[in-house]
Design brief:
Elements lengths: L4 H26 L1 H10 L5 H34 L6 H11 L1 H28 L3 H27 L4 H14 L1 H19 L5 H4 L1 H23 L1
Helix pairs in contact: 1-3, 1-10, 2-3, 3-4, 3-5, 3-6, 3-10, 5-6, 6-7, 6-10, 8-10
Length: 228
């Protein structure tokens, strides 16, 4: 029997909270090596330690973070589209199916992020201009939304890798309102997760961002498909 009214509303909310917590916990477990070195990155005291940690992160991220995040987006896609699935088996299934594509995509996107970080480090040391800082923040904002769109595309459109990159860029640049919407909401989620509600990190942070990103992408994608 389907619950309605206030009780039905609370039930639906509790279902989504449980879903977010469960898939995020899986994502967190699969990403544990990455999060371990990210945490160590915050504790480095010398340039040598910083360089070594960044190199390790650059090597392992495409092989760990990207497949795990792709699987989370694939699970979130099913839920957003109203399909009921077995979480653990589905997550592992999508992890294996999209592993190669997500790793290669992770290598390419990881290079973009690494170049941006290196440029930021050298430019900030050379110049303390607020204009430079604002420019790099804007680039990071665009690249972050591009990365989220990439995950949504490879789990939904089932396209080739080059087309996934092209379409992710098209949506990021061609739909500025969606880009600002997803970027700001994701940024706020990250901000509040690290300032006062740190419990969100292992239980909700990735899943909520994936939900917001894919829901926004699906809305845009559906409009484009309708027009065509």
């Amino acid at each position: 029997m389907e619950l309605t009214g206030i009780i039905g509303g609370f039930y639906k909310i509790s279902v989504w909270i449980t879903r977010f917590a469960a898939v995020n916990l899986l994502w967190f477990i699969f990403n544990f090596p990455v999060f371990f070195f990210v945490y160590n990155l915050l504790l480095v005291e010398t340039i040598n330690e910083l360089v070594v940690t960044v190199i390790i992160l650059s090597v392992i991220t495409p092989f760990i973070f990207f497949p795990a995040t792709t699987a989370m987006f694939a699970v979130m896609r099913k839920w957003v589209m109203g399909e009921d699935i077995k979480l653990a088996s589905s997550y592992w299934k999508y992890y294996k199916e999209e592993y190669k594509k997500s790793v290669i995509g992770g290598m390419v996107i990881g290079c973009f992020w690494l170049l941006l970080a290196i440029d930021y480090y050298f430019y900030i040391n050379a110049s303390q201009s607020k204009l430079f800082i604002a420019f790099f923040i804007l680039l990071a904002f665009i690249l972050a939304v591009f990365t989220l769109h990439f995950f949504s595309i490879i789990v939904h459109a089932q396209t080739k890798l080059f087309s996934a990159f092209k379409n992710a860029m098209y949506i990021t640049i061609g739909s500025p309102i969606l880009t600002i919407e997803i970027g700001l909401i994701s940024g706020l989620i990250l901000y509040f997760s690290f300032h006062g509600v740190a419990f969100l990190i292992p239980f909700f942070i990735g899943a909520i961002i994936a939900f917001v990103s894919f829901a926004g992408f699906l809305r845009f994608y559906s409009k484009v498909q309708t027009k065509h």
